């Protein structure tokens, strides 16, 4: 395609789009210019799926140049920009605040948004990202600190003229926590209804994943039958499974850490034992066989052997899209745990045993899974009324004594 010369304020740009067949993104959009300071000829390019996307990318470069931004600054990714300007963005903060802010940047902002150009980050992208952090059960303080560092970096981008208004000021996110707390008052409402629905969900997630990796479906089924968190399933080793009694000793869970995912002790700080029901024993046996003889081998991994997290499972299987298509638009990965605990309760497992399986610190939390149905409630009321009637019934008087001469 022919070059097109553009003459914005201060910088002369030359742009072109080249079609390169047999590539995932065959339309290469390229912009070239002379750096006024060094007099060197520089260039940037990106592959796009179609010509319209390529034209949009070039137009954004042109608009940035007209505003006085160099193409390299206009296309800078958030991760690169934040790392280069973090000292400016966080100036004035106390030392005790820096650590949680920097942790939020490394562990959450960069993995979620760091690959996007600063100018391409929208309010919608930030909103969805924050919702995902909440769905992944991050604490309020963690989300608050993470949003705060993102806001500061984006405000620095405003001062640098890269964007006009920061898209990072999120409002109303605390209400999502309130909604989650309200839902937990009735966790049974979050459970899948039956085994067939679970299998349908697992199969659909596998079909939506890259290369249809069966491991994702096995993780989902295992979670819904053991009441385990996704991080605990990721931390499960072959040696944790007793195939004689079919008991899993939950000892650790995978959690985000600087530099990636790492394994730590269980959330309750102590090991617990979980039964492996007959329906999933063949699945577990096959995983053990595939893992090999090393007892420290992970029972479940991603397709490349890596650790699993709830975010990894969500992204790899397009969870939100699949769940919505199946009619479960509010289903989260943690609801698999609610499913298992509800099924255990309906099977008649006593509350103190259910508490040990769940690893709950409070018996009150476990009791929320034991809500009886309406018929049992009315039957209980009838039984109490019958009991009262017995107590109120007049006692029969003794027979009178007949005196005879």
Summarize the biggest pleated sheet. Answer: 4 strands, antiparallel
**Structural class of the helix and strand makeup?**
alpha+beta
Helix percentage range: 40-55%
Percent strand equals 5-15%
Query: What's the total count of β strands?
Result: 9
Radius of gyration (Å) = 30 Å
State the distance separating the first and last CA atoms: 136 Å
Number of helices: 17
Oligomeric state, counting identical vs distinct chains: single chain
Task: Note the run of SSEs as H and E.
Answer: EEEEHHHHHHHHHHEEEEEHHHHHHH
Mean pLDDT across the residues is 84
Low-confidence stretches: 1-9
Give the overall shape.
Answer: elongated
Cross-sheet strand order for the largest sheet: 1-2-3-4
Structure summarized in a few sentences:
The chain is an alpha+beta fold and 405 residues long. The protein is built from 17 helices and nine strands. The N terminus is likely disordered.
Describe this structure in words.
By secondary structure, this protein is an alpha+beta fold. It contains 17 helices and 9 strands. The protein has helices at 51-66, 71-74, 78-89, 95-113, 123-135, 140-159, 173-184, 195-208, 214-226, 230-234, 281-291, 310-317, 319-325, 335-346, 351-358, 363-367, 374-392; strands spanning 4-6, 13-19, 27-34, 41-48, 241-242, 247-250, 252-257, 260-265, 272-275. The strands form 3 sheets. A 4-stranded antiparallel sheet has the order 1-2-3-4, covered by helices on one side. Strands 5-6-9 form a 3-stranded antiparallel sheet. Strands 7-8 form a two-stranded antiparallel ribbon. Strand 3 (27-34) and strand 4 form a beta hairpin. Helix 4 (95-113) crosses helix 6 and helix 9 (214-226) packs across helix 14 (335-346). It is elongated. The N and C termini lie far apart (136 Å). The relative contact order is 0.07. Mean pLDDT is 84; it is low at 1-9.
């Amino acid at each position: 395609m022919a070059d097109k010369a553009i003459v914005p304020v201060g910088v002369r740009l030359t742009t072109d789009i080249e079609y390169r067949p047999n590539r995932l993104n065959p339309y290469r959009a390229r912009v070239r210019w002379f750096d006024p300071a060094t007099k060197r000829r520089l260039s940037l390019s990106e592959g796009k799926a179609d010509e319209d996307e390529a034209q949009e990318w070039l137009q954004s470069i042109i608009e940035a140049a007209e505003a006085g931004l160099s193409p390299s600054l206009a296309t800078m990714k958030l991760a690169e920009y934040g790392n280069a300007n973090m000292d400016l963005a966080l100036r004035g903060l106390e030392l005790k605040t820096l650590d949680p802010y920097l942790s939020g940047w490394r562990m959450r902002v960069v993995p979620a948004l760091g690959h996007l150009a600063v100018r391409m980050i929208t309010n919608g992208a930030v909103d969805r990202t924050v919702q995902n952090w909440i769905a992944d059960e991050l604490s309020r303080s963690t989300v608050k600190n993470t949003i705060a560092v993102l806001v500061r970096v984006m405000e620095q981008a405003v001062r640098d003229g890269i964007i006009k208004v920061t898209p990072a000021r999120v409002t109303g996110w605390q209400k999502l926590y309130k909604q989650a707390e309200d839902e937990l008052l009735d966790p049974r409402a979050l459970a899948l209804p039956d085994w067939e629905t679970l299998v349908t969900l697992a199969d659909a997630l596998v079909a939506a994943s890259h290369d249809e990796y069966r491991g994702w479906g096995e993780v989902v089924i295992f979670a819904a039958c053991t009441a385990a968190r996704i991080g605990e399933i990721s931390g499960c080793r072959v040696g944790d499974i007793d195939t004689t009694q079919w008991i899993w000793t939950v000892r650790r869970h995978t959690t985000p850490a600087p530099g990636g995912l790492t394994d730590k002790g269980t959330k309750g700080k102590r090991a617990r034992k979980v039964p492996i029901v007959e329906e999933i024993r063949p699945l577990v046996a096959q995983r053990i066989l595939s893992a090999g003889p090393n007892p420290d081998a992970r029972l479940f991994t991603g397709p490349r052997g890596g650790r699993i997290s709830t975010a990894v499972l969500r992204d790899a299987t397009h969870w939100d899209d699949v769940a919505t298509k199946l009619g479960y638009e509010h289903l989260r990965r943690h609801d698999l745990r609610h499913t298992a605990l509800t099924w255990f309760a309906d099977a008649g497992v006593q509350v103190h045993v259910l508490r040990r399986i769940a690893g709950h610190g409070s018996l009150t939390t476990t009791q929320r899974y034991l809500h009886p149905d309406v018929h049992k409630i009315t039957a209980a009321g009838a039984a109490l009324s019958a009991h009262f009637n017995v107590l109120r019934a007049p006692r029969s008087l003794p027979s009178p004594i007949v005196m005879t001469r």
